[in-house]
Design goal:
2 copies of one chain form a homodimer. With 221 residues, chain A is an alpha/beta fold. The first copy, chain A, has 10 helices and 6 strands; from the N terminus they run βαααααβαβαβαβαβα. Chain A has a 6-stranded parallel beta sheet with strand order 3-2-1-4-5-6, with helices on both faces. In chain A, strand 2, helix 6 and strand 3 form a beta-alpha-beta unit. In chain A, helix 1 packs across helix 4 and helix 3 crosses helix 4. Chains A and B meet through helix 1, helix 2 and helix 9 of A and helix 1, helix 2 and helix 9 of B.
């Protein structure tokens, strides 16, 4: 049984974190929920619904389901306006191609939703043969372990053989709860210590550095 | 001689870091210099010229002075479009008012420029009696110590009596080189360990928490 990798998508393979922060900040301010950029940043990667409710609770203003949906819709709209094209992070396309050629199984597990994630998958060259688990496939998004567990099951690999790759503490927390190893990438704008303390076995700058360091993870393609 | 405080502005008193990241990313991409959000984020707080040249060097494409100026101009334009109004960080207005009433001397030292910073100073209630040193007042911006030293001289306080308050490692590095104590705020999106390792004596969440913790710094208003 080969070792397997499960990747987060936004901020791990595609450079979208800062655009998400900015779009959330605008959508929330428009809804009368002004909140600081850094607090949004540290929550990116959670499910959008969980995130919106957490912000509202913090500001002491409970939201109805309709309001939560409207804020999420507006965030999506602003995000598409701000970032018409997706940009893979350095080395992301090469890393996935490399794993494919070496027959190291990998999948993608994201708190994002189809069809919003489709452009990202396309620009990464992720074909129909790759297992992709998205928000709509599970009941609970990160930091619950459901996305990673669903991905691992569909890939047909053992939990103990999986290493999760993510840029946010929510990925690392969800991986731990799923009983999986994890590594962190700095591409989401967290500091190295934050990722290590959240359970990352190693921290790399970006997918390019991870690609050059696979043997440090016991993966020898 | 009372203890004195010198504040950074963007990211420390005003919530502008994520809008700056996004505006820089767009301005640089338009100039054919695509670069990841997290790399921009970790350089915010440097002078714009230094920053633009650093990015260009990293991408292996040297820039002429005219190009550097044009990218800076475009960044300013996008920034004003994206953030028409400045939002003080939680507790910032109260903190400055509190220091003023208690007659604790304070000043502001920023890598930003007039007239771009004027709206921020106004929303913070910073009057003409407060020493404000901006990019145009010194030869070299952060991480050089010039901004903090010029501010301290104009305030007429001793270096050993100054505590610098900043959100970026560049503030903390410049403070160290100026021989000043420093504290960090999480409002710029750095992790606590990054700020502590760069020399911050304490790290607070935001200006509100700093305001409630002045006695931890030996400042008893």
């Amino acid at each position: 049984m080969a070792r397997a990798l499960i990747f987060d998508l936004d901020g791990t393979l595609i450079d979208t974190v800062y655009a998400h922060v900015f779009a959330w900040q605008r959508a929330l301010a428009e809804a009368g929920l002004p909140i600081e950029g850094w607090r949004i940043h540290r929550r990116i990667g959670m499910s959008g619904g969980l995130f919106t409710r957490a912000v509202a609770r913090e500001l002491g203003r409970p939201l109805s389901d309709t309001e939560v949906e409207e804020i999420q819709r507006r965030h999506g709209e602003l995000f598409r306006e701000l970032v018409p094209e997706r940009r893979p992070l350095p080395g992301a396309v090469d890393l996935l191609a490399h794993l494919g050629e070496a027959e190291v199984p990998f999948g993608i597990a994201t708190s994002g939703r189809r069809p919003e994630i489709d452009a990202s998958l396309e620009v990464l060259g992720v074909g129909a043969d790759v297992v992709v688990v998205e928000r709509g496939d599970v009941l609970r998004a990160k930091p619950e372990p459901d996305l990673f567990l669903a991905c691992q099951e569909r890939m047909g690999v053992h939990i103990r053989d999986v290493t999760v790759v993510g840029d946010a503490v929510w990925d690392l927390l969800a991986a731990r709860r799923a009983g999986m190893l994890s590594v962190g990438l700095l591409t989401g704008g967290y500091g190295e210590d934050e990722l290590a303390r959240a359970g990352a076995f190693r921290v790399y700058r970006d997918p390019a550095e991870l690609n050059a360091s696979l043997d440090e993870l016991g993966i020898v393609p």
